[in-house]
Amino acid sequence: MSDASFDSKAYEAEAQFGDYFALLKPRVMTLVVFTALVGLLAAPVAVHPFVGFCAILFIAVGGGASGALNMWYDADIDAVMRRTAKRPIPAGKVTRDEALAIGLTLSVFAVVFLGLATNWLAAGLLAFTIFFYVAIYTMWLKRLTPQNIVIGGAAGAFPPMIGWAAATGSVSVEAVLMFCLTFMWTPPHFWALALFVRMDYDNATVPMLTVTHGRRSTRVHILVYTILLAGLAIASAFTSIGGPVYLATALVLNALFLKGAWDIYRRDEDDSENDNFKVEKSFFKLSLLYLFAHFGAILIDSALVRFGVLS
C-alpha cells in the first residue's frame, strides 16, 4: 500500500468538516446506528436514557472509525472506481495519514468509552467488529476471494448484538437471530450493487463475484441467498424476536424480495444493459428498505410486549 500516488497529489484546498465526516461513511453509519438501537431497545432490560444514548453514540463512533480505516487502506482502489473516486482521499481533500490517525483515535475512544458507559463485553464486541471489518475484510478477504462479502458481512451484522450486550451484559439467542438476519441479507444486497457497477470492480481488480464468475453466476447466487434469507426471516417471526408486526412485515417484504431476485435471475445481459440495469437497481433499493423494515418491526413488537399490549 504505497502512499506515493496520494502524497504527491496537490491538495488544492483545506479539508472542510464535511470531508472528515465523509471518512466515517455516514450512510453506512445510519444502518449501524439503527440496528444497534434496535438491539439495545429490544433487550428485556431497562436502560437509563443517558446510558443508552452514550452506548449508541460510541457504537456509531466505532462504526465511523471502521469507515475511516477502510478508506485509508482502500485509497488505491477508491481512486479508480467511479462510485468512490469522490471520496475524501482520492479527491485530494484528506491525506491517508490523516484518515489513519482519525480511524485509530476514534476506534480507541469508542471502545474504551463504550466499556466505561456500559460493560466490557459490549466494548469487546465493538473492538472485534472494528478489527474484523478492517483486518479480516478490508485488508484480506476483499482482495483475495469472491466470497469476500459473504464472510466479511459478519462485520455489519454485529451492531444489534453489541446493542443487546450493552443493555444486558450478555449475548442471547435473540441477539444471534438479529446477527443472522443481517448476515444473510448482506450478500444479495451487495451482489445486486455489483451487477451494475461491475466495471468499477474490474478496473480495481477486486475479485467480486461478478468479476471472477460473471454476472450469470451472480444472479444465481442472489436468488439462492434470497431464498435462504426469506426462510430465515419468516421463521424468525416465530421466535423470541418475532411478533404479529414482524410476521406481517416479513411476509410482505420477503415476497417482494423473492420476486425481485427471481426477476434478476431471469435477466440476460442484453436486457440489463439496454435498460441500464433498472431491475437490479430496484432490487438494491428494496434491499435497503428490507433491513430497516425488519428491524423496525422487531422494535415495534418488543415495545408492544413491554407496554403489555402483547403477551
TrEMBL record:
Keyword Transmembrane: yes
Highest taxon above the source species: Bacteria
Localization terms from the record: Cell membrane
Keywords, sorted A to Z: Cell membrane, Heme biosynthesis, Membrane, Transferase, Transmembrane, Transmembrane helix
Signal peptide coordinates: none
One Pfam assignment: UbiA
Pathways involved: Porphyrin-containing compound metabolism; heme O biosynthesis; heme O from protoheme: step 1/1
Membrane topology, from the record: Multi-pass membrane protein
Catalytic activity entry: heme b + (2E,6E)-farnesyl diphosphate + H2O = Fe(II)-heme o + diphosphate
GO MF entries: protoheme IX farnesyltransferase activity
Enzyme kind, highest EC tier: transferase
Membrane spanning stretches: 28-44, 50-73, 94-114, 120-141, 148-169, 175-197, 218-239, 245-265, 286-309
Gene3D superfamilies: UbiA prenyltransferase
The keyword Isomerase belongs to this UniProt entry's keyword annotation: no
EC number assigned by the record: 2.5.1.141
Role: Converts heme B (protoheme IX) to heme O by substitution of the vinyl group on carbon 2 of heme B porphyrin ring with a hydroxyethyl farnesyl side group.
Stated family: Belongs to the UbiA prenyltransferase family. Protoheme IX farnesyltransferase subfamily.
Quaternary structure, from the entry: Interacts with CtaA.
Remaining remarks: Carbon 2 of the heme B porphyrin ring is defined according to the Fischer nomenclature.
Protein name, as recorded: Protoheme IX farnesyltransferase
Gene that encodes it: cyoE
